[in-house]
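lol ok so funny story. i was supposed to be doing the assay writeup but got distracted and ended up predicting the structure for this chain instead. priorities right. anyway since i did it might as well share w the group, maybe its usefull for someone
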Amino acid sequence: MIEQVVTRKNLLKARRQVEKNRGSSGVDGMPVGQLRNHLDQIRDTLVTSILNHSYEAQPILGVVIPKGEGKTRLLGVPTVIDRVLQQAVSQVIVPKFELEFKDHSYGFRPKKNAHQAVLQSQKYIHEGYQHIVDIDLKNFFDEVEHYIILQLIYRKVKCPTTLRLIRVWLRAPMQIGGRLTKRRKGIPQGSPLSPLLSNVMLHELDRELEKRGMKYVRYADDFSIYTKTKSEARKIGNSLYEFLRDKLKLPINRAKSGLRRPVNFQVLGFGFVPTYKKGEKGQYQLVVGKKGWRKLKQTLKAITRKTVPMSLQERFRKLKEVQRGWLNYFRMASIQAKLKEIDSWLRNRLRYCIWHDWKKLERKRKNLIRLGIPYGQAYAWSRTRMGGWAVAQSPILRTTITLDRLRKRGYQSLREHYSKVSPLLNEPLSTRPVR
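and the output, tada:
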C-alpha cells in the first residue's frame, strides 16, 4: 500500500488538495504558497525516509479558537508537508473503509452532507419516532484511545509502513503556547486524517446500532437515535452509555445528553416546530436553532460596527459572504419572518455606520441636503444631540437612506438572498427527498 501512497501522481493530487484547503502554517511557519517548490526539492528524500522508517512527524501547532458561549476548541495544525502526506494516505485508504460505512453516517463522506442528515432526522420524526435519544460525546477528538483506533485501521490496512505513519502522526507532540505537550490519546482536529479516523472509530457504533435494528442519524460525533416510546428510549440510552464506555472508551457528556421530544431537540443547528395545518398532525417543520441566530447576529454586528475602519462597499462584500455561507446552510428552514426582522435591524446598523462616517456637522448637513432634506431641517438634524443609533432609526435617515439607495450601492437583503439560494422554498417539507 505504501507504494500507492508515495507515487508522484498521488502526492501531486494531495498537494493540490492541501493548497485548495489553504489553512495556516504549522510549527515551521511555512505557508501553503511555498509548498509546491519545497515539496519538489525534498520529495525524493522524503519518500526515502518514509520507506526506510526514518520519517518523523513534526510537532503539531495547537491553536485555540472560540467555540461560542465563552467556550474554546483546541485545533491541531500539522505542518504543510505533514498535511500533504496525511492527505496522500487518506486518498489511498478511504476507499477501503468507505465500502463498509453505513448509509446513515453523513459526516465527511463523498456525496453525504449535513442536510441529508437533518432531512433523515425529520423523516424519522414524521414516521412517529418522536422519542429521541440525544447523546453528546465529551471531547470526542481528545478522548480517542490510540490503540483502539490503530486496531480498527489494521483490519483494512495491513501495510506496516502505512500503519507506522498513522501511529507517528497520532503520537506527534503538540506545541501549545511555545511548549511541547506529549499526546497519548486523541485525534488532532485540523488534520486531513481526522475526519476518516473519527468515522473509523464511530463506525463501530453504527454497526452496533444497526445490529439492534435502531433508527439513527450520525454526522461525525453528533448522533441521535429515534424510538416510538419513552421506555424504549431510556433503555437504549443506558445500553449505549455502557457500550461507548466499555467498548470504545468514550465518555458521554451527561449534561448535554438525554431523552428529547422534537420540540426540544436540535440536530446540526436545526430545530423542529409542529405544524398546525389540517391533516398534518405529528408533522414538524425545520427552523434555525437559537445558537444559529445568535451566531449570525454576532457576525453581522462585527461587520457593521461603526468603529471598524471599512468602506461601505467592503461592508457589503463581507455581508454577502456571510449571507452566502449562512443562508446556504439553513436554506431548508422556515426563516422568512425572522429574516425580515434581522434585515430591518441590519439596515439601521448600516445607516448608523454611514452617519458615523459623515463625522463633521457640515458634512452631515450637506449630505442630508443632497438626499432631498430641506435646508432648515438638514441643518437642525446635523446639529442634533441624539445618539447615532437613535438617528439611524429616525425618519430622517429611514426616508433618505432607503432600501433602493442601498441596493444601488451593492446591498442585498437577507430575504432577497434567501429566495435565490432556496430552491426548495415552495416545496412542502414532508415531500423533500432524503438521499
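The mean pLDDT is 90. The two ends are 33 Å apart (CA to CA).
back to the writeup now i swear
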